[in-house]
Amino acid sequence: MSAEKQYIEFFGEVRDTIAIRSCDEMNAQRETALQTFSAKGFPSSKVERYRYAKVDADFSPNYGIALTTLTEQLPPYCFRIENAEPRVRALYNKVADNADSIVALNTMLCVDTLVVHVPKGIRVEHPIQISNILKGEQDTMVSRRILIVMDEMAEADIIVTDRAASQSRFLTNQVIEVLMGDGSHLSLYEVEETHLLCTRFNSVFVQQGKNSSLHHTNLTLFNGHTRNRLDVRLQGEGSEVTANGCVIADKMQRVDNNTLIDHQAPSCQSNELYKYVLDDSAVGAFAGKVLVREGAQKTSSKETNANLCATSSARMFTQPMLEIYADDVQCSHGSTVGQMDEAALFYMRQRGIDEREARLLLKAAFITEVIETIPLESLRDRLHVLVDKRLRGELSKCEGCKLCQ
Amino acid sequence: MEEKNSFVREVAEKKYEYGFTTNVETDIIEKGLSEDVVRLISQKKGEPDWLLQFRLNAYRYWLTLEQPTWGHLKMPPIDYQAISYYADPTQKKKQGTGEIDPELMKTFDKLGIPLEERMALAGTAVDAVMDSVSVKTTFREKLQEKGIIFCSISEAVREHPDLVREYLGSVVPYKDNFFAALNSAVFSDGSFVYIPKGVRCPMELSTYFRINARGTGQFERTLIVCDDDAYVSYLEGCTAPMRDENQLHAAIVEIVVKERAEVKYSTVQNWYPGDSEGKGGVLNLVTKRGHLRGANSRLSWTQVETGSAITWKYPSCVLSGEGSQAEFYSVAVTNNYQQADTGTKMIHIGRNTKSTIISKGISAGKSQNAYRGLVKVASTAEGARNYSSCDSLLLGSHCGAHTFPYMDVHNNTAVVEHEATTSKISEDQLFYLGQRGISTEEAVSLIVNGYAKEVINKLPMEFAVEAQKLLGVSLEGSVG
Fold first, then answer.
1. Residues of B in contact with A333 (CB under 8 A)
2. Which residues span the domain enclosing B283?
3. Contact status, residue A201 vs residue A110, Cβ threshold 8 Å
4. Which residues pair with B391 in a beta bridge?
5. This prediction's pTM
6. SS3 letters for B125-156?
7. Which tens digit of pLDDT belongs to each residue from A347-363?
8. Between A and B, how many CB-CB pairs are < 8 A?
9. 10 Å Cβ neighbour count for B191?
10. Does residue B336 fall inside a structural domain?
11. What was the ipTM of the complex prediction?
């Protein structure tokens, strides 16, 4: 319990400071969260959903804990939680899995919540970009919270990027809650390009209403240790979710994606595609579960996980699961782990492309399948460039972003 | 309509035709488990001291364990003190001429197991195990000419102690899991097979297991050793009477495959599945594992699982020999309240090892059918290759079909593929067959058989016929 202890003690010390800076809705949840966290502690690898994560080790180092609030200047549809509508504020912590101790820790320590609220029937013209920039001389732990509320028939594109502007150690514990009203559309993109000393725990919880559709893409381009959790509850009939992701990892990087698509209503569709390219001593894990509840007839679900291991020390764990309690369904999943196609490499070398370049091309082509599913053209183009740079080892600092320079 | 209903009822009632009990006097020891019981079993079987110590170590280790709960199963609590760990139906005839009790012979006749003359026609050597004791092993002399040892494990302990001591627990150590520890402590009988170097076993070897006595569990242990360049095909069948209590069956099967040797292990499991209300039935909690020790050795598991209230087993292969190949073919059918959590583990350790997994699940009624499999490629397994495919078929809207594949790959030269689909029987197929004058029930049976064909084709002939019949019977009445 030593790793947990420092967080519990810290919370005891700063409880009042947090309460003053924060709002009632958030403060009301802290004590329950503390109880959950104290009782459960960090999940060990024996907990099925944390089988491949090393939570204890990731949370053990002594971090300074950031207790900052958001600025007042926010773009349209974005609010600090205290400025949001009361109806929206009340939705705080309603979708997240409160029994999870990582979420509980976030609920305990998070000071402010960014609310994105798109009212009924509004189509947000320009994508909303949320840039998280980690900066500071000290090793820091950050608890972040985002609440996205899409009213009926609302439409938006949201891009969440994670970057690090200084070489300190950072630990991020982020929780994103998404509530989607009937007929709403949301594209949510998450792009992580940090550095080897960054650890990120990211939990996304989505609840979807009738005929709503979600397009979620999670790209891990550069990181230290990352664990992404995505839970989607398809509660309304005819809702759709596409959950894609790609990972490029090398050196000692570790990336664990853990998804649950919970089909609770009939005639819903889910599509999942995750691709990993692992080099050096990187470790990748993918555990995706599709749960079709009794009565969720006419469900259609497809899950694919493909992985490329480029060296003998790279490791991949994959676990695509189906749990089905309804009979009129079409569900399939597939997963592969393999290496580069020698014939394709040979073909390219015959045509004068050197081996390094040929390998690079193959890796880029492998990842492209995920990027091509992104509907937002400008982001797609930018990502192609980023992936190419990443594979060439040139991705160190984000260009074109004024904040870091 | 009335007529149709009565027909369905008739079929449903006769569904489990092996549900009779045999009236033989059976020597059953007191219920309960303690060190004394372990000693008593060992003493009754006249075992040497090393085996008693093996049992005691296992028992003491078992005491430190708790029953695992991670399966996708709703398990009734098992009272390990309410089970009798040894039942011997052959006791009473021992004073006589060594002839088998005619009642017992009748039992095996009813089950269609050729113990006497018919065996010659069937060309299968049989070891029949009832409750805790091996009743009779046939064809022994003929096999002996070739140097093949096929006998009950108790006899093997007496007559070939060195072999048994060398291999017993070498594939499934008693520390392996909760049920393996329990079995190692109290195992009663089972078969022992040794195929010497270069010998191709001329006939199918077969074991037939039957639980007869009430309030007992069956803990048999099978050990197969296939020496260099040898070959054997081994069949296993099981039945039990209909009882309203849950009977525990916790067996261990260990297989050692040496260089260039090949073992085929086929199971048709038809333990009593419980009635249509989910009452009674056998709890089938078995540890099966083969160790491919030699280079280019081969092992294939084929199983047709139609019985048992709960099936929880993973026939596995440890591929350590270079270039060794393993296969797993399975059809698991669950109906009514049956539950199955079954699959396989393929552990690739040697270079250029290959494994194939084909699993077909069929769930009907209110049953739950889960495939759980592990494919692990160790960093030493250069060029390992695995292909897995598991399909589930759902008949009815109250049943469940689940797939939990685990792939752990620690080597970049490995190629591992997994694919799975879950669906119900397509309306198009049913319509097509209906158009051609085939009734729905028959059409479903045709489609199911076609679906399972890939696996059934891997079974030896006699078993394939039985398996096909079983599939028909298990699903009877589940369509509509």
1. 403, 418-420
2. 17-427
3. no
4. B360, B421
5. 0.82
6. EEEEEECCEEEEECCHHHHHHCCCEEEEHHHH
7. 999 999 999 999 999 99
8. 117
9. 29
10. yes
11. 0.77
